[in-house]
Structures are given as C-alpha cells and as structure tokens.
Amino acid sequence: MRKYLFTIIALIVATLFVNAQQVVKKVGDTISTIKLQSTKGDVYNMADHKLKGVIIVFMTPSCDHCIAYEKRISALHEQYKKKGIPVVAIGPYGDNEKDYPYDAMPAMKKLAEEKSFTFPYLADEKFKYTWLFDIRQTPKAVVLKKLKEGFIVTYIGNIDNEPDEKRVPTIKYVEDEADKVLGKSVQ
What we know:
alpha+beta; Glutaredoxin; 8-stranded mixed β-sheet; 5 helices; signal; Redoxin domain-containing protein
C-alpha cells in the first residue's frame, strides 16, 4: 500500500513540476499580446495598437553590446514604424531595481530620455517575456506578425551580423524578416 501511495504522490509532484515550467515560444508559435509598464509611466499593450507586426528588442542600459546597437535600433524603428512594424524594446531587469540597479526602470527611463527614444521601452515583469522567448543575452530581437487574433513569432535572434558599431553589417536579419512580414521579397 505504501508503495502505491508513494508512486501516486511522485506522479502528482512530477505533473505539477512539468505544468509549472515556462513554455518557450519558437518561430511559428503565437502570442496574444505583450502588456508591460513603459518608461513613460503608462502600461503599453500591443493589442491596443494598429500594427502589421512588431520588432521587439531585448536591451539593457548597461550592456556594451546594447549601447553599440542603440543607433541601429532607433533607425529600425524610424524605418519600420511608418510601415506598421514599430520597435518595442524590453528591459529584462526593468522591475528589479534591488538586484539590477543599472538596468532597472530608473536606468531605463534615464537612457530613454538621454537618447530620445521614440519607441516604447518596457520593463519586463519577473522575466516573463525574457523567458517566454528564451532570451539569454542582449540585444536580441523577436519579430512578430499580426494575425486576426494576436501575433505569430516569425524570427528570434540577432539584429544583424555585425556587433561592432564601427562596421557596417552585411546581413540584416531583422530588416529581412520585417520585409517578409510586409510581403516584400528578400534577396
């Protein structure tokens, strides 16, 4: 009897553990929206905007690689927002000022003001979207295409193939994907 009881308890615990694991989104998966606190003080909800798609960039104020990409990220936003695919940046540590003071909301607000970001810069809540898209370093991009209900993930990865801000990228992954979302052929 004890053996059966132990087996049943073990199965229940294992089932709860598996169900508690975060499901990671991959290319082809869908998401209903992203809704997070903005550096402007409001809550930004993608579902509230008329979009053809979204370029999400995970970035932090203290990351050297993110700093090197700031101009390119702003240029992406300017290039694609008019076409219906704006940039929305997410700070993975935005809600954790205690553990990440150089990357939390106050630092994000300061950066957004200093650099005059025209795109929303959102603070992730307990790494919800950072984990959802399996982001392990910054900057990383996710391209979403708008569907009737929600968005489909079309790309997760690097912005381009050149992390050195002094060099010109030869492959622009996010631009190529955004053009595909818009129905343009990519060479």
